[in-house]
Design goal:
The chain has 320 residues and is of the alpha/beta class. Helix content is 34%, strand content 15%. The chain is built from 11 helices and 10 strands. The strands form 3 sheets. A 5-stranded mixed β-sheet has the order 3-2-1-4-7. Strands 5-10-9 form a 3-stranded mixed β-sheet. Strand 9, helix 10 and strand 10 form a beta-alpha-beta unit. The longest helix is centred in the middle third of the chain and has 17 residues. The N and C termini lie far apart (42 Å).
């Protein structure tokens, strides 16, 4: 009998989560920012970066519905716990930043920096998935969705070739600055090019991704100085190094398998866009993301929450 992909391996799931509505957290954030930043259309510090719309609750409902085989769920937070979370469930554990991050990196409001430490979670399995709280499953998946028969991770890139060309045109011809997210991915790509002679222009599909702890550890050893230099970036900075670094190194060293995904597999929905909801209903992808941003209003967030409640109405075992 042929062995199935990902069979007989324990696979954990890691989330980053923050409740930006928490006054204690907000005070800590304001002190870090010196209360100089104003809310608005600023990508790095906008409300949407930290707003809590209970997406995590619905993401976990999607996991229970479509991936019940997940061994354990770890939620990385800054001294916070979702009010609805059942901590008595042995399959879920809160991990505070202080458990995995050094003092010089704290407090940290920069998910890019935090992501460099998730593989250091105590008790995390060698094979793990990483998710943001706004990512969801839309169809049943199995271990083989994430790991192949040789137990290497499937690295999913979006098919966005023209967007890559537009970014190059904007930067090199129009001489316009790129957004922070684009810049920090470029930083990762340039590091890998300098070491391996390969420049990866692809981007991960902005959803649940598969990793090996050993791959993460190896990439950190290769680029230790460059990664450690970002630890003091308490909020997003232009010299951050995005976690794409781990995917690029894995591909360069043949420690992972590339798969380019269409909208029918993975979709990023901007919750302020009516057309994106229609597109989601049309394609019914395996993975989808409900993306908040600097352009989103509270009314948009209310609509997003109503959509998720309708899509995932049943409480999961992780709720009180």
């Amino acid at each position: 009998m042929e062995k199935k992909s990902g069979e007989n391996i324990d696979i954990d799931l890691v989330y980053l989560w923050v409740d930006g509505n928490d006054p204690v957290w907000r005070k800590k954030y304001d002190v870090c920012m010196g209360k100089k930043e104003e809310e608005g259309h600023v990508q790095e510090t906008c409300k949407g970066r930290y707003a809590n719309n209970d997406e995590l609750k619905y993401s976990l409902r999607s996991i229970e519905m479509y991936a019940p085989w997940i061994r354990k769920v770890f939620i990385v937070t800054d001294n916070q716990v979702p009010a609805w979370l059942d901590l008595s469930n042995p399959r879920i554990k809160i991990i505070d930043h202080t458990e995995i991050m050094p003092a010089e990196a704290l407090p940290c409001f920069n998910s890019t920096v935090i992501e460099h430490f998730i593989y250091k979670i105590p008790g995390l399995s060698e094979y793990f998935l990483y998710a943001n709280d706004d990512t969801f499953l839309g169809r049943p998946v199995g271990p083989g969705t994430f790991f192949t028969r040789d137990h290497l991770p499937i690295i999913r890139f979006r098919r966005k070739y023209f967007k890559t060309l537009r970014l190059m045109f904007k930067e090199k011809v129009l001489r316009k600055p790129v957004k922070n997210y684009d810049q920090i991915i470029k930083n990762a790509a340039e590091l890998v090019k300098g070491k391996y002679g390969i420049y990866y222009r692809g981007r991960t599909h902005h959803n649940i991704d598969a990793y090996l702890k050993s791959n993460c550890r190896h990439a950190e050893e290769v680029f230790r100085e460059e990664i450690e230099a970002t630890f003091a970036n308490h909020v997003r900075s232009a010299d951050d190094i995005h976690r794409h670094l781990y995917a690029y190194v894995a591909l360069a060293e043949k420690r992972g398998h590339l798969q380019c995904v269409p909208k029918r597999t993975s979709m990023r929905l901007r919750i302020e866009k009516d057309s994106h909801y229609r597109r989601l209903a049309r394609f019914k992808p395996t993975f989808f993301c409900m993306n908040d941003s600097e352009y989103v209003t509270d009314n948009d967030r209310m609509r997003s929450r109503a959509f998720l409640e309708k899509r995932f109405p049943e409480k999961s075992q992780f709720e009180k």
